[in-house]
Design brief:
Blueprint: E1 8-12, E2 18-23, E3 29-32, H1 38-49, E4 53-58, H2 62-74, E5 79-83, H3 89-103, E6 108-111, H4 127-155, E7 158-162, H5 166-169, H6 175-195, E8 200-206, H7 216-224, H8 234-246, E9 254-257
Parallel strand pairs: 3-4, 3-6, 4-5, 6-7, 7-8, 8-9
Antiparallel strand pairs: 1-2
């Protein structure tokens, strides 16, 4: 334990005994999938403010990923953009290799990349759309965890998977989306046990979030049905992510960030 104290910030408790409680994120290397916009962008920038070096994964939005990288570099941290479709195993393998090589290791993995479908009713969901959501949202998370696991184990790493309130109560945007996000929760539980104690694995289940995935009309409707009268900001999801990354004794947990919406 003593040999690893440099990984942590310490504080003195009321009984005057120094205790190790939170992981120091400064200088740690992180990979954020889907990091070019929305929740992923907010998480990448939050990590940068903590002093972490960040690899920003993107699929098609190279310019947006480049903007996030520039903002991170202005904070004084190392940042790179890495293109990959997380639903493609070979691309994920290449991405992780590029991150480990480009940043000099990997301690943090945030699986944020995800998509929604065009259909919601069971009878109307095409087979191709079902497969696409499962491939990106669930298989993509699995591929990233599986391939990055060796590097994370070497460094005493952390994984945070971005699930959804839909993974716990079904949601309203389709059974395929709900199933994919429920799968992420199950995967989180299984990996938390398998990778312990070297790697902690947790998930966040946001309610509706103010991103460009949903229209202004839908945002207003969702806000009216939420106890707080508004939907979450990406930064609020990022804040919960940082909490899970800093704590070294939380694993196998799903943190709800929905302002009481799950009570309905």
């Amino acid at each position: 334990m003593v040999a690893h104290l440099d990984r942590y910030k310490t504080f003195r408790c009321f009984w005057n005994v120094e205790r190790v409680e939170i992981m120091d994120l400064e200088g740690k290397n992180a990979l954020v999938t889907g990091g070019s916009r929305g929740i992923g962008r907010a998480i990448a920038l939050a990590l940068g403010r903590k002093g972490s070096n960040v690899a920003v994964n993107y699929h098609r939005r190279a310019a947006a990923a480049g903007e996030v990288v520039e903002l991170l570099r202005e904070m004084g941290v190392k940042a790179i953009a890495v293109q990959a479709d997380v639903s493609d195993y070979d691309q994920v393998q290449r991405m992780v290799q590029e991150v480990v090589s480009g940043l000099g290791g990997l301690q943090i993995l945030v699986n944020n990349a995800g998509i929604v479908g065009s259909h919601t009713a069971l009878a109307e969901i095409p087979v191709a759309e079902w497969r696409q959501l499962i491939d990106v949202n669930l298989s993509g998370t699995f591929f990233c965890c599986q391939i990055a696991a060796a590097a994370l184990k070497r460094n005493g790493g952390k994984i945070v998977n971005i699930s959804s309130i839909a993974g716990k109560m079904g949601g309203t945007i389709g059974s395929h989306y709900a199933a994919s996000k429920a799968g992420v929760i199950g995967l989180t539980f299984a990996l938390a046990r398998e990778l312990a104690p070297r790697v902690t694995v947790n998930a966040i289940a946001p309610g509706p979030v103010d991103t460009d995935f949903i229209s202004t009309e839908v945002k207003e409707r969702l806000s009216r049905s939420t106890p707080f009268g508004r939907i979450a900001t990406p930064e609020e999801i990022a804040h919960a992510t940082i909490f899970l990354l800093e704590n070294d004794y939380i694993s196998g947990e799903v943190i709800d960030v929905n302002a009481g919406r799950y009570m309905d």
